[in-house]
Amino acid sequence: MDAVSDGTAVPLSAVSDGAAVPGSPGAAAPPPVTVTPAAAELIRSLRGRHGPLMFHQSGGCCDGSAPMCYPAGEFRTGGSDILLAALAVDGVPEPVEFWMSKSQWDLWKHTRLTVDVVPGRGSGFSLEAPDGVRFLIRSHLAP
Amino acid sequence: MARYDAPTHWQSRYDHFIGGEYVKPHGGQYFENPTPVTGQTFCEVARGTADDVEKALDAAHGAADAWGRTSVAERALILNKIADRMQDNLESLAVAETWENGKPVRETLAADIPLAIDHFRYFAGAIRAQEGSLGEIDDDTVAYHFHEPLGVVGQIIPWNFPILMATWKLAPALAAGNAVVLKPAEQTPASIHYWLSLVADLLPPGVVNIVNGFGVEAGKPLASSPRVAKVAFTGETTTGRLIMQYASENIKPVTLELGGKSPNIFFDDVSARSDEFLDKALEGFTMFALNQGEVCTCPSRALIQQGHYSDFLAAAVDRTKAVKQGHPLDTDTMIGAQASNDQLEKILSYLDIGRQEGARVLTGGSRADLGGELSGGYYVEPTVFEGDNSMRIFQEEIFGPVVSVTSFADLDDAVKIANDTLYGLGAGVWTRDMNTAYRAGRAIQAGRVWTNCYHAYPAHAAFGGYKQSGIGRENHKMMLEHYQQTKNLLVSYSTKKLGFF
C-alpha cells in the first residue's frame, strides 16, 4: 500500500498551468498524491492502449468519491479545479495529471492520497473498468 | 422468517435489446455479472460499444415519430399495462432485484418494485392530465403553447436501485412520447432484462432500446452523441460534469442527479416523551442502513441537539445494533450486501480514514463475514461514527451503511452545519414543534427536506438537488417538461397589415 518511487509527484512548477496547491509541496513535504505499484502498473497498461492519461477525483454518489481516469484532455478542467499532482510513473513518458475540484480539495487538504487499484466492476466513464478493476483512493492524514 | 430461493429465471446470457429484439454485440464480447449476495457470476452480459449505440439510436429514431404521435390515452394505457404486468410479477421482480443488487428482499418487496409500479401509473395519469396553455396577447393575437416530445433521449442508470431508477427515467420519457436508448449500470445490468421479458411485447419496437456495457465504451458514445436530444444521468460529480461537457458540444439539455451528504436533524423535543414518535425518530436515524446506505439521500450525517444528545444517541446506537444482517433473500434480513467489490473496498477505505481523523466508532466499523456461501459476498456492519463536521466522513458520500454523528446547539447552529456541505439533495428534520420544522426546512439548502419522516419516495413529490447535487426534479409531473419541447404558435386573428412595408 505504500507509495513507491515510480509514483511520486513531480514538482508542479515543472508541468503546471499555475494552479496553486494549498500548502504546496516543498522539497521536504510529501506530495499530495502518490500511487501504489499496482496502480502504476495499471497506469502503464492504460497508457499503452489509450495514450496520455489524466485523473479527476469524483465526489457524490454511486461511483463517486473515486478517481476517474481519462485520456488526457477528455475531461475539461477549469477555474473550479485544482491540479494536485503530476504523477511520474515509470514507463509513462509524460506526467499524469491528477485534478480535483477546488471546493472538494478544501475539504480533503488535511489528507494525503494514494491511488490504489482493486478488483471491481464499474466506474463512470473511467478507462480501467472493462479490465475488471477499479482505481481507489486510500487516504492518510497529512503529517 | 421465509427464505426465497435464488432466482432461476435468468438467461445465461443477455444481448442488447434494439428495435424490439435481442441483438448480439457488434464486438462479440460479453462480461460476467456476479451477484453481490455470494460474489458468484450468474449470467453474461453484452459488452456494448459505439457501434451498438448507433444501432440502438437508428432503431429509436425509426420509432420516435410514430410513438410521439400516439395519443396520450394510448401511451398511458401502455404504461398502465406495464404496471399491471409488474404487479402480477411483483415477487419474482423483487427476488431478481435482490439477487442483482444485494439488497434485502423485504425492501424490494415493499419499496423498490411497488414504487416502480406506482411510478408508471403516476405518469400514465400525469400525461393524460397535462395541458398546454394559451395566452391572449391582445384582442387579435393568441400565443398557444404545446408540449412536444424531444424525440430520442439517452438515459444512464445507476446500480443502487436498478429497476426503480430505470423507471424514474423511463416512465416520464415514454409518457411524454420519446423513444429511449438506455444503458443500465455495468454492476447491475441483468434485472432490467428480466423486467423487459415481462413487458417487451407491450412496447412498439424501437421505443425502448437497452445497450449494455461499460461507461467508457457504451455510456460515452451515448452521452456524447449528437443524435440524442437529451441525456439523463444519475451518478457522481465528475461523470456528471463530463456529460455536461459532451452535451455542451451538441447544445443539448441534461438532467443530473449526483448525490449528497444528507443531514438528519434531531431537535431536543424529539425525546420529550417516550412514545410512538420517539420510536419513529429512532427508526429515522437508522434509515442510514436502508439499501446498505447505497442511496444518494442516505442520511449519513446525524445532527443531534445537545440537550438530549447522550440519551438519544445511546438509543440510536442500540437501534442500529438491532439491525439484522443476513441473507438478502431472508424476509427478516434488514441489511444485505453492498453492490460490488469496489464499493465494499471504498467503504472500508472510509472506515479507515474516519478512524485516522479521530472519529469514534460507536458500533460496527468493519467488514462482516456472514459465513457459508455468503463469505464471498460484500457485507459491511452498520457503523455509527461520532466526530466533527469537518472530517471527511462528514463531507463525502461513502455510499455505505455509515452514519457520522455530531451535536448542535440551536436552530441556527443546526442549519449552519447542515448547509456546510458541497451537496444539497436530501435532509431530515425531526421535531414536535412545527414552527421549528418549518424554519429548519426552509433554511436547509436541499431539494428534499423530509419532515418527521425519511426515505419516503412517493410519486408526486419532486426529487432533485441543490448545489453540486444536480439539475432537474424527478418523481413529479414537472419531470415531463424535462422530456418535452415547448412549441409556441403565435397566431394573428386579424386581417389587417401592420403597415411597415
From TrEMBL, chain B:
Chain ranges of the Aldehyde dehydrogenase domain: 23-488
Show which residues constitute the signal peptide: none
Active-site residue list: E257
This enzyme's EC code(s): 1.2.1.3
Keywords in alphabetical order, please. Answer: Oxidoreductase
Q: Provide the reaction this enzyme catalyses.
A: an aldehyde + NAD(+) + H2O = a carboxylate + NADH + 2 H(+)
> InterPro entries from the xrefs?
Ald_DH/histidinol_DH, Ald_DH_C, Ald_DH_CS_CYS, Ald_DH_CS_GLU, Ald_DH_N, Aldehyde_DH_dom
Question: Which molecular function terms from Gene Ontology are attached?
Answer: aldehyde dehydrogenase (NAD+) activity
Q: What class of enzyme is it?
A: oxidoreductase
The family classification in the record reads: Belongs to the aldehyde dehydrogenase family.
- Protein name, as recorded: aldehyde dehydrogenase (NAD(+))
Question: From which source organism is this entry?
Answer: Micromonospora sicca
